[in-house]
Amino acid sequence: MEPKRDGVYLHLDPWREALDKLLCNIDGRYRGERSPTEDMGETVPTRKAVGRVLDRPAFALISSPHYNAAAMDGIAVVAEDTYTASETNPVILRARAANRGAATELDGGHAGERTSISSIRGTCVWVDTGDPIPPGYDAVIMTEDVNPLGKGRIASGNEPGISEAPDDGEGAAEAVEIIRPAHPWQHVRLIGEDIVEQEMILPEGHVILPTDVAALLAAGLTEVHVRRKPVVHIIPTGTELAPPGVALAPGEIPEFNSSVLSALVEEWGGVPTTNEALPDDFDAISAAVRGALDNGADIVVVNAGSSAGREDFTPRVIQSVGRLLVRGAAIRPGKPVLLGVSRDGRPVLGLPGYPVSMVLTADLFLKPIIYGFLGRPVPERPRLRAYLTTRIVSSLGIEEFIRMRVGKVGERYVATPLGRGAGVTTGLLKSDGVTVIGALVEGFEEGREVEVQMWRPPEEVEKNAVIIGSHDLSLDVLHDILRRSRDPMGISSAHVGSTGGITAVSKGYAHAAGVHLLDETSGVYNIPYVKRYMPQKKAVLFRLAGRVQGIMVPRGNPKRIEGIADLARPDVTIVNRQRGAGTRILLDYYLKRLGIPPDVVKGYGREEHTHMAVAAAVKGGSADAGLGILAAARALGLDFIPLTVEAYDLLIPEEFFDKPPMSRVVEAALSPEFKKAVERLGGYDLSETGKVERV
Questions:
Q1: Is pLDDT above 80 for 103?
Q2: Are 72 and 144 in contact (CB under 8 A)?
Q3: Residue of 103 and 676 predicted with greater confidence
Q4: pLDDT bucket at 167, cuts 50 / 70 / 90
Q5: Which of 232, 323, 555, 667 lies at 20 to 30 Å from 387 by C-alpha?
Q6: Exposed/middle/buried for 176, CB within 10 Å: 0-12, 13-18, 19+?
């Protein structure tokens, strides 16, 4: 099936079929096969080879040890001289000077000076660990089992061998006494005990570890032949791109995708090179791709311009240098991915511009060909089974990759889906793993057990406190304090609103919930809702902070908004929080008191899930106002009209309150460090922090 050229997706390949199509059409070296015309390797110093992949087996050049070596401090002896030694019948030996340079047939060495056994019988030589065993000797007795007698003390006793003691050149010989026999080659490291010359040390395809370096150097290998790292040239495209760190004009966005891709390529074993960001221009992009191929890049990646817009030139660019094999895969996010091959068999990929789509498609299609080039299988990620805290809806015909926040509550793992937008970079930051919904499945119900492929080690998320509910900046402060503690842990939070948090706690999906729910009848925060929704479950409300709620408006308050009544004006558009959020319930409370129907408030149905998202909408000009906390308004430089000080509590089941991880969260919340950090945010009343009410 040839890809359609006019930008319309007539057929979407499942990602595994798309990858197979790419692998079948590119050069065999990207599948781990040796190129018949090119040496795939390079020689590098052994000391700098950690993490590299051996391109051929490594054989020892020397044995280790390459001589018979003392394994203990003590004396080298002829074992036969000691056979009769005992405490009641000690053996006395004369100590003689060692000739470390001598190597004879008697000690297994190469041809050289020969030593007569008869000339050394009844003698010994002091040796240290690692010293060569002197010619003719075949055992070592530890220092602890040797009793030095001094010089001139050999007058009687069990004295084997000879009647005259060899003189060491300084008068009478030193004598030693031993009381235990030694067996041949006792405490001696024989030649080749560790490594034998010409023995294979490591096989082809082995990834060199720090401990491998010791064995390679011991075997005399100061250099090793390793697989050459593939050069991956990255070309970011888009007229809207600007360098990171510069002042941005409307319509400009910072170019950071190439930095993310470069880091991934390095992590996977490749060498990234980066092109300057190019405008949406066919000739410029085409010239950059041709230049990368001419300069020897093994893989070329064009980032953005892969979709079906009028300025998406990447499909034509790939066709101009070779063949476009795949235009679009049946995945979400990442559908617009492009897979092609140059005329000489090198991969040319077009990855989507949205960051989440780019990272996923790089993982699915770029990573395998980098590992293949290195002759390595793609490593499996750790997987675990977790229970969904909320329902997920998906479309038939598309394989969807859902980023998950994962924690362990009690004895089971729980997983909460994060925002699914392809441009939501915070989803990459906060996710612990991913769950895949098959193309023939319309989603998963809440409470279903699903498989999560983990980005992070499972043992890391097991320590975290799972807090689901209303968002507050103080939770980020707590997370930071806990991450910097001696025994680091964190907070795995998901923002589903206060009522969603109560539901999660009642079903055992969370250690705690952030709640700030005003009861319209009693005017009391939180307690009536907990009693209403959790009548059978004992819990604790822990006061984290009182916080100022009000109306956030742009700097200078251009619409002259003074209170809730102004939100019903026809010239005012608001942004709201999601159903079940305490801030939305507060807005409804004020509208009801004023007799204002929600449907007359423009923007009432537009929902955001955090105070900062509401503040960003107001700052960006898409809304004239929105309810939120003072800290969020200050963070983005907005004006603020205060309405009330509300109680923000952590709802904690009683069984979790006094045990980790929640006991550590409570401890951090009571610390001076927490108080100072939250006070710096502004808009908080910490006078009742730590207040506990059992409900």
A1: no
A2: no
A3: 676
A4: very low
A5: 667
A6: buried
**Mean pLDDT value across residues 109-134:** 78
Q: Which one, of 243, 260, 432, 255, lies nearest residue 362 by Cα? A: 260
| Strand ranges, E, within 240-398 | 241-242, 253-254, 271-274, 299-303, 322-327, 331-332, 338-342, 347-351, 383-388, 392-393
Q: Which of 417, 492, 427 is nearest to 460 (CA)?
A: 492
Angle between helices 314-321 and 282-294 (to 10 degrees): 40
- Are 650 and 512 in contact by the 8 Å Cβ rule? The answer is yes
More confident residue, 156 or 533: 533
248 secondary structure, DSSP code: P
Q: Please say whether the beta carbons of 692 and 662 come within 8 A.
A: no
Residue 693: phi and psi, rounded to 5, are: -125, 125
Q: Cβ(358)–Cβ(255) under 8 Å?
A: no
Percent of the chain, pLDDT > 70? 90
Residue 188 Cα to chain centre, angstroms = 45
Task: Tell me what the mean pLDDT of segment 517-540 comes to.
Answer: 91
Identify the H or E element spanning 166: none
Rounded Cα–Cα distance for residues 195 and 96 (Å): 31
Q: Which domains does the chain have, with CATH numbers?
A: 15-36+229-373 (3.40.980.10), 41-64+194-227 (3.90.105.10), 69-189 (2.170.190.11), 383-505 (2.40.340.10), 529-694 (3.40.190.290)
pLDDT reported for residue 160 = 53
Peptide bond into 597 cis (omega under 30): no
Contacts of 164 (CB under 8 A, 6+ apart): none
Strands 231-236 and 271-274: parallel
**How many Cα atoms within 13 Å fall on the side-chain side of residue 352?**
25
Banded model confidence at residue 186, pLDDT cuts 50, 70, 90? very high
Pairs from 277-282 (Cβ < 8 Å, separation ≥ 24)? 277/236, 277/237, 277/238, 277/241, 277/243, 278/235, 278/236, 278/237, 278/238, 279/237, 279/238, 279/239, 280/237, 280/238, 280/239, 280/305, 280/311, 280/312, 280/313, 281/313, 282/313, 282/316, 282/317
Q: Which residues face 127 on adjacent strands?
A: 74
Q: pLDDT tens digits for 345-404?
A: 999 999 999 999 999 999 999 999 999 999 999 999 999 999 999 899 998 899 999 999
The pLDDT-based confidence of 422 (bands split at 50, 70, 90) is low
Would strands 347-351 and 338-342 be described as parallel, antiparallel, or unpaired?
A: antiparallel
- Starting from the edge strand earliest in sequence, which strands make up the sheet with 271-274, in order? 271-274, 231-236, 299-303, 347-351, 338-342, 322-327
Report the distance separating Cα 602 and Cα 52, nearest Å.
60
Low-confidence winner among 307-316, 320-329, 553-562 (lowest mean pLDDT): 307-316
Within 13 Å and on the Cβ side, how many CA atoms surround 438?
A: 4
Kindly report, residue by residue over 577-586, the tens digit of the pLDDT: 998 888 999 9
CA distances from 644 to 330, 342, 634 (A): 49, 64, 16
Residue ranges of alpha helices (H) inside 255-321 are: 257-268, 282-294, 314-321
* Planar angle of CA 271, 276, 280, nearest 5 degrees: 120
- Per the CB < 8 A criterion, the answer to whether 583 and 577 are in contact is yes
Spatial distance between the Cα atoms of 684 and 316, rounded to a whole number of angstroms: 56
Helix boundaries (H) for 524-602:
527-533, 582-594
Q: With CA atoms as reference, report the closest residue to 631 among 427, 465, 477.
A: 477
Q: What is the pTM of this model?
A: 0.81
